Amino acid sequence: AGNTLMGMGTVFLVLIFISLLISCFKFIPQIMDKLSKKSSVVEKPEVVEEISETVTANEEDDSELIAVIAAAIAASEQTSTDSFVVRSIRRR
After folding, report:
1. What does pTM read for this prediction?
2. Which stretches are transmembrane (predicted)?
3. Where are the domains of the chain?
């Protein structure tokens, strides 16, 4: 009888612990938002000159990048590059 009560008590304690743990999940996004706001306020890079230089460098590389993308699509589709046009490239 004592062994059964000990086992049932352990099971109920673990179930209560799991219930409390699950109920804490609704507070985690709020805490993460507060932490991300603090870290986003701290970071403010001042890189105005370098951006203008990279934009001009990227404009020169775009034609080369378009050619590479067109060649990759043509190779995967087993067609020539005459059947399609690369109109825009979005960088992530």
Report:
1. 0.36
2. 6-28
3. 1-44, 46-92
